[in-house]
Each structure stands twice: as C-alpha cells, then as structure tokens.
C-alpha cells in the first residue's frame, strides 16, 4: 500500500505566512474595538514543521513505513489564477483568493470563539488587508509532498 500526503505551511516560508497570520489578527482586533464581539483571551494554536521534522516522524515509525519521496514545492497563493497568460490577476483578486483559503482552514476555530455571524465581516476585512500585503510582497506557501509505503 502506498500513501501520498500533501502538507502546507512548512517553516521554509514562515515569513510569508507570518504576514498572513498577522493580517487575520488585525480584523479580530478591529471587530473587538468596534464592540461587535467581546474578547477576554484568544489563542490561535499553529505549528509549522520543518522538513527534517516530517522526515523524522516518518522514520521513527521503524518497521512501519518506507519513505519513498519527500519533496517541497514552493508556489504562489495565486498559482491557479495564473494559468491563463492573458488574464491579469490584481491584488484584490489575490486577497479574496487567499482569504477564502485561510477561511477554509481557520473558520471553525474562529467561529467557535466569536460566533458564525461575524465571519463574513472578519474575512472581508482580512481579504482587504491581504490585498494590500500582496502589493508589497510575493505571497508564497510551501507544500510538502510525502509518499510512503507500508512495510510488510
């Protein structure tokens, strides 16, 4: 049996993700200050493994798996939008795309803390901040592709 895994947000590109992470905090603070939500304490637990940590976890399962492939692929958040060379992707579109991706990952955590009613507003503000960030830097993420086979 062969298993292929794809993991995102490796420490290799932490700077880009750190900027995106900070952008999600700003709308939370704005919404708190405006009185739309009450906040006593908020923690968003995130861990970014290194490629060596991924390799070590697999290899520590001695006798269980054989590591066939371990690759990193660095790509822009807007990679899927750039397939058509005649299509120009502006920063607003990048902000909206990234906001949708981040929302898919974090909405459950955030709505548990702040409620579902505020999510559209929060991610709308987030998309605008990310659009501004996209004008200043290239926003990339690193995918890790792992292929393992189960040992007999």
From TrEMBL:
GO terms for molecular function: metal ion binding; methyltransferase activity. Coiled coil: none annotated. Keywords: Magnesium, Metal-binding, Methyltransferase, Transferase. Pfam families: Methyltransf_7. Gene3D superfamilies: Methyltransferase, alpha-helical capping domain. One of its GO terms (biological process) is methylation. This is 7-methylxanthosine synthase 1-like. The keyword Repeat does not apply.
